[in-house]
Amino acid sequence: MEGAILQDCPRLEIYNSHLTPNFGEWALGFCGGLYEKENPGCSEQTDHTLQSVTSLDLSNRCIHNLMTKAFSPAELPVLSYVNLRGNPLDDNSVGSLLKFLKGFSSLSSLEVDIPGPLGENATDILEALPNLSLLNGVSASKILESEKCVVDSMLQPRLPQWDAVESLADRVINSMWFYLMTYRLADEEKIDETSVWYVMDELGSALRHSDEPNFRVSPFLYMPEGKLESAISYSILWPTGSIRGGDECTRDFLFGIGEEKQRSARLTAWFHTPQNYFIKEYEKYRAKLQSTKFSPPPVALSATNSVRRSDGGALHVYTDIPQVEEFLTRPEFVITTEPKNADIIWTSLQVDEELKKAVGLNDQQYINQFPFEACLVMKHHLAETVQKAHGAPEWLQPTYNLETQLSQFVGDYYTNEKAGDDNLWILKPWNMARTIDTTVTQNLSAIIRLMETGPKICQKYIEHPTLFKGKKFDIRYIILVRSMNPLEMFISDVFWVRLANNAYSLDKRSLFEYETHFTVMNYRGRLNHMNTPEFVKEFEQEHRVKWMDIHVRVEKMIRSVFESAATVNPEMHSPTSRAIYGVDVMLDCHYQPKLLEVTYCPDCTRAWKYDTEAVTKGGEVVKGSDFFNDVFGCLFLNESTHVSPL
């Protein structure tokens, strides 16, 4: 119908509120307020009817070609404000549009989608249009000073949304992230472990956001007895400038957070920010990952030798790990309590130059850690290392460092949302174990707000893992590394499964149940240990697969992880480093391994506590009490008892 109408009415300039390709002075005059019901005008206007128009709202008019005879500097000589939001303007290039708009000498205020027809960066637009004093309602000088890419003073607030079937509790939980405030309580033993979330009263919660607020709010704890148990909490509100009666009280939701900390992207927690910008950022990031090609280092012969003392005596080992002290019983090793006299330092502490100096360590001593191993054992560095080497391998879920990649993550989230795909994510602190401060959620506002409790990665949740008797599980592998260059590593014959206690579910309410979605029960919940041979036998029966097929894929993946580290961080190599790492793996519903994390000096309680069988070597008995004897034999005596080379 539209095509027929436009064809039969060639002088029609506006159709269903959209400007037709034939729009001219009358349509622009209508949008500029020259014509209305009492003064409709007509298409037979005299020339130069737009000479007095200073403001023109052309938003959402479906304009494809802006550069017409009617919309020109000659016809609109005093135009100072124009709103071009919501128009494709796809008949004009970015460069030609910027050059064209620069000809409007009086134009001082412009509103346009960013990214959009004038480009993807607010700073670039201002540099091309130096006469602008306001862009999307924000001062040009402030934009240039802050180097913002996206600016918009007209952001619409996110409002609570829910389904008719949702309970009141679910509605509150989904909406609370618009109002929550937070602070952290720390002591010497549990620093960064206690985050407190709270909601202010009606007055405090009614304070709206402003980039130029006139009030500040801070939590205040009064402890009359000097103890936390006696604390009474308040929110202190005070003005930061002159206030007049009738002024609205506002606060900065992101006080102290500038663009260097992704301020514009973080506003997405409360406001509808430009989706196109974030989707484009994600698409550029994804394209970069997909273009990455990995060249594995050449496989070389072993370059390590057995460690021997010059006097032929036993190697002296200093350790702060009780199980090593108890179970390292081989005559080739002897425990010492003096670190500076040890040949081998086996510690759970980070050994840096300061510690070396404090306890008198030297560069000839062997240490159970490699330089720069943070590229593996810190979650954000692990993702970065793998992505630099492999791009986006199937065995690594999409992972974002929220401190530096929030825009790309938001774009990924919006892309999934538009496609109707799952949008369940897991947030993990950079460097905490035992699932501390770890959250599973599909709430975008929650993900962004949870950044406030410490730096995190956000990783696509494995919505459909392989289950064991209806429950989620993961597997802990022990990896022994003798050398990073050439890469010389082994996988222990001893590995174990970690089982959730509850049946797996994707029901929203289950996301808060630790024993449904998490498997580490050593420190909370009820530990349900299962011997590995028993697990493998029952798993094969349940799923009708061969465990060795899965094991081969796991070995290949783990080798790739350490190859990534060796390639991206060659400075990891040290001739006096030997280490073991815990690698946690989950299987998706197609039995493909997914990397969860790599752990330094892993908890090996289940390895030394239980006797087991080497399921990958025909059921050979492996005594738990010999675990550390085998580890030290492999790393320092070049043995291969109960380990396999990778």
UniProtKB/TrEMBL annotation:
One of its GO terms (cellular component) is cytoplasm. It holds the Pfam family TTL. GO terms for molecular function: ligase activity. Residues 167-272 form the Tubulin--tyrosine ligase-like protein 12 SET-like domain. Keywords: Ligase. The keyword Ligase applies. The keyword tRNA-binding does not apply. This is Tubulin--tyrosine ligase 12. It comes from Olea europaea subsp. europaea.
